[in-house]
Amino acid sequence: MQDAHAFLQTLATVLGVAAITTVVFQRIRQPVVLGYIIAGLVVGPHLPLPLNADMSTVQTLSELGVILLMFAIGLELNIEKLVRVAPTAGVIAVIQVALMMCAGVAVGQAFGWTQIESIFAGAAIAISSTTIIAKVFDEMKIDPRLRELVYGVLIVEDILAILLLAVMTTVATGSGLDATTLLLTTGKLVGFLVVMVVAGLLIVPRLMRYVVRLGRPETTIVASIGICFVFAHACAAMHYSVALGAFVAGVLISESGEGHTVEHLIVPIRDMFAAIFFVSVGMLIEPALVLQNWVAVLVLSVVVIVGKVVGVGLGGIVTGCGLRTSAQAGLSLSQIGEFSFIIVGLGSTLGATRPFLFAVAVAVSAITTLTTPALIRRSEGAARFVEDHVPRRIGTFITLYSAWIERVRTAPASATTGARLRRLSVLLVLDAAFIVALLVGGGLLHERIQHAAAASLGLSKGASQVLVFAAAALVVLPFVFGIVRLTRAVGLTVAGDTKIGRPVALVVQLGLLVATAAASVTAVEPFVPPGVGVLLLVALAIIAIVSFWRNARQFELEVQAGGAVVLDVLKSKLAGEATARAAHGKDHAATSPPTPNDAPSLLLGLGAPRLLRIAPGSTAIGRTLGELDLRAKTGAAILAIVRDGKPSMMPGPKDQLEVGDILAAVGSEESLSSAEALFTALEGDAQPA
């Protein structure tokens, strides 16, 4: 009876204080997650307040919060959604997570943390908070294209976080990263997951479809949460994270086609236990540890904000999202949250990290959570500033490259092209996997190999090290060349092996190289000497930036050379318009469709331009192209502005529009139709020319 009374008292204290903080934070328009963390500080043991809750009880309840959070994330995922977001959000997430992992490791090493602690720090700052972003986006009017991109990145990041949890478990229990033990531990984990997923696919989807057909919500809730806890318990029994089991259960139920039904029903339960989870996080914060490590907290906070903007921005540009949208997405994702707590909590539970790391991670999350609403509100202005100040050559290249990617993405691919891209992608993954396996094996066994080489050949320690590294390079080199060759083949398949398509193909190649190298470096970082992976990634980034700049120059020259084609098309269309006006009147000319053979091989394969006229009284008059933001809103790019019969090629974001201007827009049919609809909707701002 006494235990029941103590449990009730703890629950009342936690939920009562959490209720007050959530109301306060809703009123001051701040993420309620931060309020829950502060509630945890209030009821925790580290502040001299008379509201202490029993730590063990809250920790037990918080486990339910973790399980339900991960279960809900799994419910939102399915194979179809993953395939849809993989070409864009997948690449962005891989680049961003890898960059942040390397940055976190570098910061940890700089502060003298152990290699394992540095790896956990990198993993903690790599994953953005789905909970925080969802709550902030719900309170703001966010552009649908930006919302879709950000949520796509979050989906892939959640999957990567699950993989990180599995890898972190393996690394932290690898007995000093001994090769044999690590191999056995990894094999055991993979085998367990395969058995769990295969068995689950045979039972769970059929069972959930049957349960939902009964039409009883309470039966659906009990059955779905029961399945969730069964899988979580299976993982706990095998000494793995309960989060992994809950996530797998959610994905299996999602494959039944009833994921949205279950998700809608469990939302209130999930939110209550998630609140307790965040309160438990606040209870674990030791203000003294935060103060002792305040420099690390500030440095990691800056790294999170700047690193995510750079990582997401780079990935967004490579995948054709455009400069402005990429910058806005980076600012929106500049925080860490629930996964960070789970990851560092795992490290603490396994004894791989010291208590200070949890306090540092929570403090960084609190700071970045506070800055998130302000960053999202100001993201459009900041992105416009970046777009206005980027070198014009680079801005033009990014804009037309994005329009190119948009057209390729929406164009129906031939069976031959699709099969070739799938084959190249499989070979690329295999080559990267071989390199990772060789580097991990070499990193774990290099000391033994060096001793064996020194003993058998009579070499000194330095000479044996050089010999081992040279041998490793010779073994890895063919696979590196294979990756370079395969990424080039993918780029040429997408862009075409033409004089003007090669710069675009090279950018695709560089993007794939950066993503592949970043993922590989992240995978091998725990097993190679500290700093090696970071140095390799920095070197590749420098090479990519230099190559990008040189290609932008080459691209500009090719576009200028092809400008004669554009001018001929524009003159022909304008002459046709004048004739039509004289013969049939203005209305006929304004609605005459462009002929399909205007420019069958115009420039980059972007197709014939769609001409839009700025009519008198248009609100676009006096505004710049940057203010109109046509690329981010529709996916189309402005190739030229015709003013007084004189075309101006490749206008920049600062170019201002005047009455009578004709904009030559290029891109996919869908993006051009969206651009035309956008102009037409603004009270006759523009008409098709």
UniProtKB/TrEMBL annotation:
The answer to whether keyword Transport applies is yes
Q: What Pfam families has UniProt attached to this entry?
A: Na_H_Exchanger (PF00999), TrkA_C (PF02080)
Record keywords: Ion transport, Membrane, Potassium, Potassium transport, Transmembrane, Transmembrane helix, Transport
InterPro entries named in the record? Cation/H_exchanger_TM, Na+/solute_symporter_sf, RCK_C, RCK_C_sf
Q: Which residues cross the membrane?
A: 6-25, 32-49, 61-79, 91-113, 119-137, 149-169, 189-208, 220-253, 265-285, 297-318, 424-446, 466-484, 504-524, 530-549
Topology in the lipid bilayer is annotated as: Multi-pass membrane protein
Which compartments is it annotated to reside in? Membrane
All copies of the RCK C-terminal domain together span 597-681
Q: Which SUPFAM superfamilies match?
A: TrkA C-terminal domain-like
**In which family does this protein belong, per the annotation?**
Belongs to the monovalent cation:proton antiporter 2 (CPA2) transporter (TC 2.A.37) family.
> What name does UniProt use for this protein?
Cation:proton antiporter
